[in-house]
């Protein structure tokens, strides 16, 4: 989208172009503070909290694979999968019908699956697992530890930083706060050595009541608050003070940059859609400012389907697919879909076996990547057989990943502009694998 | 309108609330059609017996304020004044004697509605937290609600307020009891059974590839009893020869415990598959759905094949309860919720030792453990405590303190608060997952150069910290009852008349001295004091209510108020 179209969009929203000229444009320009780029790219992480039963997104359609699937999944097996025609020669595989909203994106080449992904420190065999070899990741099957491992991109360190923030710090010495935005609060992925996420609400609005208006009261509060939020002797008080002080200044800058921006069409009111809508608005604003890099974090909860999976899981997938496809359409109409890549992460896959009406914490799973830069219409990684007792099954249908979370993440980081050397810095255990990344991106 | 009709007034300490006044609390609810429990009447501040001995000296006002910040939901000036008439020991001992103020009786149906909903159970939490005399118990139960997490955020419990208040009552009843009994009561709570899905969990069915649900088995170990890593008594992690931490359990134990938690469903169910949902009584066992296989527990303890559900549960919970991690694991988290985010290992060890043995050979005595946490020299003696001693106040407890001090009320009698997750980053029994609102080891980026953690900082991002600031602003500036006219319905109003009187009698400095005691335990900095004094200059043309509200707002967001030291 060119500048004129952007401005016209603002005008349609009832804002005159003149209103955008001074403070607002300046505010927009200062949010990223990145000099190293001539182009704009954004990465949108959608974290599926609780551990998505992602093996049930891709369904074997025929042969032994199908028979194994029906035997292992029993009453949780998916009926009437939709056809998929991946580019690669793969066993006959269908799409969970709850993901129907993504089928056309897959077929038109803007969407791909990465199969068999999970936390690994090195390639791992069944006997490695059974013999408790030292490279088995710590605290498998535990929610917060596995979420952490995905987002840290490294085994637990004394200082737990996430690969998203570390990546920004590798690319630019002091990236502006708007390079690192969370729609779901604090998270390990965006916490760096010197940077941390700027949080936005899903409505995107952050009115600050005490400082609103031009009264003496507002001015006095403004002055008093900045005096009160100075350096504190007590370290926890200081931490609070810095956090609030930054939060106020950054929210004011972001408010200015988004002020008057009309809502983008096509987003429904589900929480994930609202998060993605606000992300889309920030992208609409920032992608006009020349070069830069932004990472965004959104979440969807409810995937810990220990019970009632038959009813709950299709609802979750359907909501997810709807929100993702809405976002893709918005990126398309903004003309930035080549520059924005969205991808999922989730704690872990789930057991193939059932606990009666649900599944328990597993290991490997499938993930999704979306955007114009994705070599879509294909399934990367390795489709794992959904068979109990296979060479990948540590027990009960907890499958050993064949692609590490770090390889998956490194592929995205490479697209963002990191060199191979930087990738090895960012993901210390990558060197244990033959391939640093997957062939899923166009460049 | 006569103020007395609007609500009971509590202007003096130790006012005996007459039957007339307490009845008024509910009588002007918009509808009297339905029989409703009355709101919990404002507390008669209980008087602990006087004590002033060399071993247990009378507290100074500042000492009383510090103790009550750690040991109540948020103290009032009057409470601090009363507590300063006695020793910390006598105050705590007296609090231990008070009967629990339960939340179930405070669950009220909104006028015109058929049944209680989510906002009614939150109303019950406010009513009791603000008005209950057993403040220490309420504070400990609130802490326990963040360890034994049950939440109605994003699940079917949202429509079951009775289940949630009943669960909270379970925590309250056991707050000063034995941890082993609390563990069993929480395990068998139908709210917990629903939340962590062991309710209705069945033994394996090999033909259908069905095995027992592992959810509760995992979380009861990881979060409610022993944690992931073996601990020393002082709460630090044990390591092996290569310096690596040592796991407390493996998948074998998960599967063993998963078998234990089979065969349980709602009490008095007529039918296993489709039970009537009875949330008010503990779950009951159906032996035919309980796994008859051998169950391997921690430290290779085994439950023999064929053991029934009740017996298996007893053995399994004993096995967990007796693990050496429980004292340091739970003790440290209770310390973090009450007194300090970064206790010294020695402090943790002293508390864990009391957990392990209360001095009479009893393990798991929570009353003794809470007493040890609050009476420890690190908690009581500022000269002994490290300079980083203290914690960030939980956002909810900040609001509770302001509303307690300012006798908050609404004309309708209800405390409706919307979207606490946005304004406070937390809601009672409203965690986003079983991992609570924050991790005990959360370190914000601003503390990266230190060894310190600040769990509560995990929910203080730019959205929630501005949300909380706006909330304080609205509740202190826009809800002053004496400036309101007409029907204010459900608005939660504050009463500044006591503070106005204080201002009139003692001037700005006098009021600020009072605030120094009440909100800062006499530790207010000079610059903060100047900031508050300045309000009376730049707002000199404003009504006294506003001058006071401006001060209170600045206090609410001040780093030195937000940090409980």
Automatic annotation (TrEMBL), chain A:
Record's signal peptide: 1-27
Superkingdom: Bacteria
Keywords: Signal
Pfam families documented for this protein: DUF1501
Record-given protein name: DUF1501 domain-containing protein
Organism from which the protein derives: Motilimonas pumila
UniProtKB/TrEMBL annotation, chain B:
Short name of one Pfam family: DUF1800
Signal sequence range: 1-23
Entry keyword set: Signal
Region (Disordered): 25-49
Composition skew (Pro residues), residue ranges: 38-49
Protein origin, superkingdom: Bacteria
InterPro entries hit by this protein: DUF1800
Coiled coil region boundaries: none
PANTHER family the record matches: BLL7424 PROTEIN, DUF1501 DOMAIN-CONTAINING PROTEIN
Name the record gives this protein: DUF1800 domain-containing protein
